[in-house]
């Protein structure tokens, strides 16, 4: 139902739109739209230009391999039937487009990308999907504080990102970026962030993911007084 944009919508407050100023560059503003309130999910528009989206696909395509997941017991990366896509990892060395995007993400979030994963670019063909999962994990040091999901293409049918526990459906919009925190300020995982990538029904879905480690953000996103916040 959620993959069709239907189902219960457990929203607690009114959502709004505003402009987000890039930190350090006051004249550089992005249109921003609240997609959900709990967990807080926000979409930034026009984070990527058409040239950026094409260039990222060009850089990633020769590197694509079957996407893997981390085994929660062993910590080893392995393929799984519940994740059907191909992915590639891009460092800043491969092109200026990745360097510029990292600076933009840091400016939007105010966080230090020194402790971030490389940019992951993923392609979902017809039937490509990723069943409900969490992005946070405490295996080894892989504790992902936030996820930034960038859409490199529109999708004619299917391909939504859904949060089944709260009834949220996020549709792909080329050039936009969707952001949410996987962790509470207390350092505990936010279990309302369980999400899934719905099957692609028509077309091909290209996305990019940026994950940031909890480590290194202690003074940029400090713990609060409420352990559940």
UniProtKB/TrEMBL annotation:
Signal peptide: none annotated. SMART domains: P4Hc. Its cofactor is L-ascorbate. Keywords: Dioxygenase, Iron, Metal-binding, Oxidoreductase, Vitamin C. GO terms for molecular function: iron ion binding; L-ascorbic acid binding; procollagen-proline 4-dioxygenase activity. It comes from the Eukaryota. One of its GO terms (cellular component) is endoplasmic reticulum. Transmembrane segments: none annotated. This is Prolyl 4-hydroxylase subunit alpha 2. It comes from Eptatretus burgeri.
